[in-house]
Design a protein that fits this description.
Radius of gyration: 35 Å
Largest sheet: 4 strands, antiparallel
Helix content: 55-70%
Strand content: 5-15%
Strand order of the largest sheet: 1-8-3-6
Length: 706
């Protein structure tokens, strides 16, 4: 034993550096035990090292909070405790009591540290979700931090709340009584048993686990946090500048966009002058969205010239790197921006930041109109159908049939890239731009501040926002974007096996501030394995969650019609569309529906102009938004059809098992899934017996229906 006096402020042992070699009984003063995320004060009578393991590094740093006096005893193993108790029986009660106090303090420290870790994770998660928008508002191209998506919240808290917590708290609460009647019993076995077992009960391992979690978490998120703080400062500075009417980083191509476009694309001077004249007339018109003939004519002429200008600018920009295109030209290509006065200074600043933050090509399925037209022009995607539901080859055949082109011209035009581009601009771009705007009769394709009815920051749609909502819908309706496929492997004796193949849609962002979205086409031409084409305003003013649900409902209806062909409404060949048409056509004769329910169906049909597709989309919206949350609003006929063809994901389905409205539906669904799983298992066995490896497509089917 040694006795020493230590002055205030002295570090007695440094955590994770010094090794545990002694037990130090504090005779006088207070010692502060400090970890990375917590602090424990040890008063006189406590023992330094009682919560540590001999031979290992101290988990805490021990520092004299005031002048202290300590008695030190060698501590190399449990045998050291036995020797200490034998030579100093009077220390038995003090050491046990100290162990209990330290265990209680450690448990509190662990819980505090766990809450700190959870709060740290919550702060990170919030910042990670905000990051894309903050980057956009700062005019910075978002970096790829996808690896951080796998980070999980700390899960050690439940362990720290086990039965031992109550045991230690009870010991601590009755310390005075136990010290007198229990700890004072001169039993070395009792002292060793309590002291040693309290090593586990005092949560040291949990503290180590949570500290390891925090150290790893902070190391993994360090680069993201530093980057996020920098762009957040830039975003705030940019926002203040916009509010004060100051536009940072606004170059000449933004200030004088029309002149910049004319020089950039060598636009015909007459076209440029005509467009400029129409634009000035439009801006001066106090009733530019009026219904009088002059206003309508002005909007038509301005729109016509806009697409001519757009085509010329596009053809110049299509082969350039995005960052090499002048900023104002980029804003024109993706937002329809043409003039700072028309757009407003604040909107101009925000548009420039968004344009600077864009990384074209980073997402293959969410595309600006510029990216989409680029794919068309490069021949990587076939042009979309026109308003008469004709694709490009069918359109050329129609021209030849009418005698407007010859067979030679048809063949030449079929692979003519400029003509394919022209077809896409005339149809999907021109018509889709007007449709998504929402007010067809007053639409003009130029960006106008009068159409901005909410903050551009909140209405802007990018790949991150869109993919998040698509994934949310898929997590509810897991077959939402699936269509029937056929798998064959003749060499393994498999001629045909029907599969559910998921093909995510293209989402094309139209350059306007609008309120609508629509499914342009459910497949590419006649190929059922191709993605759907959905169009939506790049600045969307309606709740996007609701819009995307309705858009998915529209896709489900049209995809079913495509798969069923002429039998899409034939009830003898049961399908989603056939059964829904039958249900809506004969609901009045459906004896299982109450009079009140039939009246509600009648009202729904009237509200949707007796359009069965619109009624279905309305019911699908209710099904996804409310029924999936166990708020039942559909009648049993509609619910039965929807659940049969649009089943909920496994977690939601299990939650509905005991609901009387779903019990039979879930039972039938479970039987169908088991049958499907059996078929897949048999298929795998057949392939493996033939000496082949099960293809990824079949493994994906196993995961889909597991």
């Amino acid at each position: 034993m040694t006795n020493q006096t230590i002055t205030a402020g002295t570090v007695i042992y440094e955590g994770m550096k010094d090794e545990v070699r002694s037990l130090d009984i504090i005779a006088k003063g207070t010692v502060r035990a400090t970890g990375d995320y917590c602090t424990i004060d040890l008063p006189a009578g406590s023992v330094i090292g009682i919560g540590e393991f001999p031979g290992e590094k101290y988990i805490f740093t021990y520092e004299a909070a005031e002048d202290v006096s300590v008695y030190s005893y060698p501590y190399e193993s449990e045998a050291s405790l036995v020797a200490l108790f034998k030579s100093n029986p009077r220390l038995l009660g003090a050491l046990v009591g100290s162990s209990v106090r330290f265990a209680k303090n450690m448990q509190s420290a662990v819980l505090d540290t766990m809450e700190f870790a959870r709060a740290e994770y919550a702060r990170f998660l919030k910042a990670f979700e905000e990051y894309p928008k903050v980057a956009i508002s700062a005019g910075v191209v978002p970096k790829n931090f996808d690896s951080l998506k796998t980070l999980k919240a700390p899960e050690m808290l439940d362990k720290a709340r086990g039965w031992h917590r109550d045991f230690v708290e009870d010991l601590h609460a009755n310390e005075v009584k136990f010290r007198k009647d229990f700890y004072s019993i001169p039993s070395i076995g009792l002292g060793i048993g309590l002291t040693v077992n309290l090593y586990a009960l005092e949560s040291r391992d949990f503290m180590t686990e949570v500290m390891d979690y925090m150290n790893s978490f902070r190391e993994k998120t360090k680069d993201f946090k530093n980057h996020f703080l920098l762009i957040k400062e830039k975003s705030e500075a940019s926002g203040m500048a916009a509010e004060n009417g100051e536009a940072e980083n606004i170059d000449g191509s933004v200030r004088n966009c029309l002149d910049a476009m004319e020089k950039f694309a060598s636009i015909d001077s007459q076209l440029s002058e005509k467009f400029s004249s129409l634009l000035n007339e439009f801006m001066r018109n106090p009733d530019r969205y009026g219904s009088d003939e002059n206003s309508r004519k002005l909007r038509r002429e301005l729109s016509s010239r806009f697409y001519e200008i757009y085509t010329a600018v596009f053809l110049k920009a299509v082969n350039m790197e995005w960052t090499d295109i002048p900023l104002g030209i980029r804003m024109f290509l993706v937002f329809g921006y043409v003039d700072e006065g028309l757009a407003g200074a604040e909107n101009t600043a925000k548009l420039s930041n968004i344009a600077n933050s864009m990384d074209p090509g980073s997402d293959p399925k969410v595309l600006t109109i510029f990216e989409w037209l680029k794919l068309i022009y490069q021949g990587r995607i076939v042009p979309s159908k026109n308003e008469f539901d004709m694709d490009y080859p069918a359109y050329l055949k129609d021209l030849k049939k009418d005698g407007r082109i010859s067979a030679e011209e048809e063949k030449r035009l079929e692979n003519n890239l400029p003509e394919r581009l022209k077809f896409e601009i005339k149809n999907l771009f021109t018509i889709g731009n007007r449709v998504t705007f929402g007010r067809i009769t007053t639409f003009v394709p130029v960006f106008d501040k009068e159409n901005v009815i909410q903050s551009l920051d909140s209405s802007y749609l990018n790949a991150s926002v869109i993919n998040k909502e698509i994934d949310r819908i898929r997590s509810i309706d897991f077959t939402a974007f699936c269509r029937q496929g056929v798998f064959s492997m003749p060499e393994a004796g498999v001629n045909s096996f029907y599969t559910s193949d998921e093909v995510l849609p293209y989402v094309i962002l139209m350059p306007n501030v609008g309120s609508r979205a629509t499914l342009w086409q459910e497949i590419d031409s006649k190929k059922r394995s191709t993605p759907a084409r959905m169009i939506i305003s790049i600045f969307h003013t309606e709740p996007f969650e609701d819009t995307m649900i309705r858009l998915t409902g529209e896709f489900r209806w049209e995809m079913c019609k495509t798969e069923q062909g002429v039998h899409w409404n034939d009830v003898t060949d049961p399908s989603l569309t056939a059964l829904y048409c039958d249900y809506l056509q004969f609901y009045r004769k459906n004896s299982s529906l109450s009079a009140e329910t039939r009246e509600k169906i009648s009202i729904s049909l009237k509200n949707n102009a007796n359009n069965f597709k619109k009624v279905f989309i309305s019911d699908y919206f209710t099904y996804i938004k409310y029924e999936s949350q166990y708020a039942l609003r559909l009648n049993k006929a509609a619910r039965s059809i929807l659940f049969s063809f649009c089943p909920f994901s496994d977690g939601i389905t299990k939650g509905l098992t005991d609901n009387p409205q779903y019990t039979q539906l879930v039972a039938k669904y479970d039987a169908d899934v088991k049958q499907r799983q059996k078929q897949l298992n048999n298929l795998c066995v057949k392939i493996e017996k033939a000496g082949f490896t099960v293809p990824d497509k079949i493994r994906q089917q196993m995961r889909l229906w597991s």
